[in-house]
Amino acid sequence: MAKSSSLNVRVVEGRALPAKDVSGSSDPYCIVKVDDEVVARTATIWRSLSPFWGEEYTVHLPLDFHQLAFYVLDEDTVGHDDVIGKVSLSRDAIAADPRGIDSWINLSRVDPDAEVQGEICLAVQMLEDALGRCLRCHVLQARDLAPRDISGTSDPFARVFWGSQSVETSTIKKTRFPRWDEVLELRAAPGAPSPLRVELWDWDMVGKNDFLGMVEFPPQVLQQKPPNGWFRLRPFPRAEEDSGGSLGALRLKVRLTEDRVLPSRYYRPLSELLATAVLGPAEEDAASPLAVLEELTSGDCRQDLATRLVKLFLGQGLAGPFLDYLTRREVARTTDPNTLFRSNSLASKSMEQFMKLVGMPYLHEVLQPVISRVFEEKKYMELDPCKMELGRTRRISFKGAPSEEHVREASLGLLTGYLGAIVDAIVGSAGRCPAVMRLAFKQLHQRVEERFPQTEHKDVKYLAISGFLFLRFFAPAILTPKLFDLRDQHADPQTSRSLLLLAKAVQSIGNLGQQLGQGKEVWMAPLHPFLLRSVSRVRDFLDRLVDVDEEEEAGGPARALIPRSATVREGYLLKRKEEPGGLAPRFAFKKRYFRLSADALSYAKSPEWQNVNELSQWLSALRKASAPNPDKLAACHPGAFRSARWTCCLRAERSAAGCSRTHAAVTLGDWRDPLDPDAETQMVYRQLLLGRDQLRRKFLENSSVDTTPEAGTAKGSGSLEGACPDALARQKAAAARLLEVLADLDRAHEEFQQQEEGTVAPGPLGP
After folding, report:
1. What does residue 228 show for φ and ψ, rounded to 5 degrees?
2. From CA 474, how far away is CA 482, in angstroms rounded?
3. Region (Disordered): which ranges (predicted)?
4. Largest Cα–Cα distance of the chain, in whole Å?
């Protein structure tokens, strides 16, 4: 059994940010911090006061985290980046609503005295002697303190307050990891018991000292359980100042998920029910877990559920039957082929998440070269006369600025060149598409063809596949490469416009040219001949894509989406050969291209192609790769051993224990993560609990349902009024079995909770 805690964070957009550059604009980006650790950084949006990021992160973190903070900064080419403001959310505020936070929040000013970090280690004793009460505070050490000096360190000392008395430790110079090991004694003053407060300060020779943080303990704690251990530093208590919107606002979506994952055997009955549902008839199904979940969920919750279900069935080797089950339900209730899979149904969301989970390496292989060319070449392309800037094209002429016609012709040539490369890459990739994706598309092709066999609907089976592959996979990746890990930064405005034109063209090809000339964008007409020529090639590609033998699918359940030998993270890092004594010269650092897999960390002088990754992503990937290692250290030295001492904590012993704790529990969710069917089934169980009462009323407490044979014409999926007696009996039996399984899981959770609280003796538990 394990407890899990994760944050789903979406940094959507900002508005009304202040201008920090002389141009009257800003180049904003966001940093996301959990407690003292930076876990994510958005891309920089250039020259914008109302940036749109749309970046989403899943952060797996320890159960005892305290605060989530978002810092908005303006990126500067020269000098330090300017801090615009921040949003701080406490754990309690996030957990107050199970649905999470989804709102605009004003940015607050960043107060240096409130920006504290780190922990302090104390051992406190309350003593009585002939002179009265005495408090003995053993100040041992602190770690991860904020750097207050220009050198990137601090000169910390501790000041202890108890009643009207105060006493200080010595000052430790140039370290963020001081070790005092000093015992301070204070005598009780007459009157009511007083709290104990320990403050940390950075000593400055000139000017006032800088605040580093504090901890405080009330009298009751001192008497009943004197502090002994590590304690997180806090800022001075004060109400956070709201800028009233003068610093702008962030739109954030944050949801905290905390749960207990039971041993696998407890989820086996629910997993069997889910497997039975996907392998059974879908059209009459109204009481299976999947039917209940489809009826209950909507919006973002449905997308999250779709991701969980896809991972669950991938882990069981049943992704194909699961998608086929949803396809059969969707096709059965669709009468107009033009609306097939056009809504955000569970079937649509599941197929979309399925492609992202299993098809990302394929997507990168197909689109990476062309996307990189667009970013690197930075060609100006525009077909819309209303947006055309004649001065932006690089054309040397003695006749003055180029005309609108010249710009259109040049843009058309560039667009068709890029589109030709994209279409060539896509239509030539059928053999490289993952077998499990091809089989899912083959099933989709067959179900749609069976439902709409008429000649006038001959293109529907193609549109069903291209609607997913082109409109929901390739086109979004072209439009926003950053969100699909194709680039590390969002595009600048000019490149973003070029990508938009390319994405629109790919969408038109995915629609098989059926809507060309019907919209308001008549300026796209010069591209129509190229798009129509590409449609026939796309049809041939789709025929080859679904021409796959079912035996090609990996048969057994898979615990990972990628093999252990596959690359998990890659990019440039600096390496240095360890040399004894002295500072390392600059030329001692070598820039090397590192690759991390679940089995090894390797490097070479140069890559085949570059994909630079940020430090937080590297740390997350390394933590995941080393998760099975039982010899991981709980602490480390963030500095180097130079001149016979550690530069971080100033200790002289080379073998001294680490002064900074490792953050192995904080990782970023990623499509490469190993599958965990138990965690996904636990989430499905939580979702089913929301519909338990509705399920009971609908199937077990409804005595007014007409069960005569004359009422045997079904009125739609999930309807009881028109169900025949046999179908109704099967649905009632399925509902009763599902409620029984949920009740068993309820009891298992209650028993484990009682064991944790010590109210029952530990022992074997049965599901």
Report:
1. -155, 105
2. 13
3. 701-720
4. 103
